[in-house]
């Protein structure tokens, strides 16, 4: 009997993860739920002068100014449609592992469903899309393909400083500099 229990516990267990599903046009995309801080209704934004067309603006949230990008405009050049299911999704953005995460807002269409699956079900799609490095692997299901969007790859080196400028040095800490 104990051998049967040992064999059952030794069986590989598929690791499940939760994803937030959304659409750009008719195509389905997914964000890992652990990267999502909060899903908000679409809110008024203050535009940022001379920013790329896909930078939707900024808004104040819990004492912080949060930059927002329109993922539809970034990906295909067309702004997200103003639907009742269009959301402002706050994500944890991190330029690299040495930096703390910061809030980044994403305007996403039809961000109302979730998917629970094994992340290993997403497979490379055979195209090296250097213009959109945030578009990750794809997963097929009964509704077609869904593509994983990697939050930390959304911003390149040219726009990151615009949205997340380096804070000025604290004068009290200048004494600590070499």
Descriptive account of the structure:
This protein has about 180 residues and is mainly β. It has one domain (about 15-165): CheA-289, Domain 4 (OB fold (Dihydrolipoamide Acetyltransferase, E2P)). It has three helices and nine strands. Strands 1, 2, 3, 4, 5, 6, 7, 8 and 9 form a nine-stranded mixed beta sheet that branches. It is globular. It comes from Pseudomonas kribbensis. This is Chemotaxis protein CheW. InterPro entries: CheW, CheW-like_dom_sf, CheW-lke_dom. One of its GO terms (cellular component) is cytosol. It holds the Pfam family CheW.
Summarize it:
The chain is mainly beta. Helices cover 11% and strands 39% of the residues.
Mean pLDDT: 86
Instruction: State the distance separating the first and last CA atoms.
Output: 67 Å
Q: Mind telling me the CATH class?
A: Mainly Beta
Helix content: 10-25%
Characteristic terms for this protein:
178 residues; mainly beta; OB fold (Dihydrolipoamide Acetyltransferase, E2P); nine-stranded mixed β-sheet; 9 strands; globular
Sequence-ordered SSE layout with sheet pairings:
Layout lengths: L1 H9 L6 E8 L2 E6 L3 E6 L13 E7 L2 E7 H6 L10 E7 L8 E16 L17 E7 L2 E6 L10 H4 L15
Parallel strand pairs: 2-9, 5-7
Antiparallel strand pairs: 1-2, 1-7, 3-6, 4-5, 6-7, 8-9
Pfam family, one: CheW
Protein name: Chemotaxis protein CheW
GO biological process, one term: signal transduction
């Amino acid at each position: 009997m104990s051998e049967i229990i040992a064999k059952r516990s030794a069986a590989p267990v598929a690791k499940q993860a939760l994803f937030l599903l959304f659409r750009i046009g008719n195509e389905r995309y997914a964000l890992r739920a652990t990267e999502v801080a909060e899903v908000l209704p679409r809110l008024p934004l203050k535009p940022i002068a001379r920013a790329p067309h896909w930078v939707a603006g900024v808004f104040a949230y819990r004492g912080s100014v949060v930059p927002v990008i329109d993922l539809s405009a970034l990906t295909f050049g067309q702004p997200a449609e103003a639907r009742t299911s269009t959301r402002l999704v706050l994500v944890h953005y991190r330029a690299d592992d040495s930096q703390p995460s910061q809030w980044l807002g994403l305007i996403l269409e039809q961000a109302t469903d979730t998917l629970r699956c094994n992340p290993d079900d997403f497979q490379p799609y055979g195209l090296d899309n250097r213009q959109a490095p945030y578009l990750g692997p794809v997963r097929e299901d009964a509704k077609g393909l869904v593509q994983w969007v990697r939050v930390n790859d959304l911003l390149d080196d040219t726009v990151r400083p615009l949205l997340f400028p380096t804070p000025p040095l604290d004068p009290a800490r200048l004494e600590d500099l070499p």
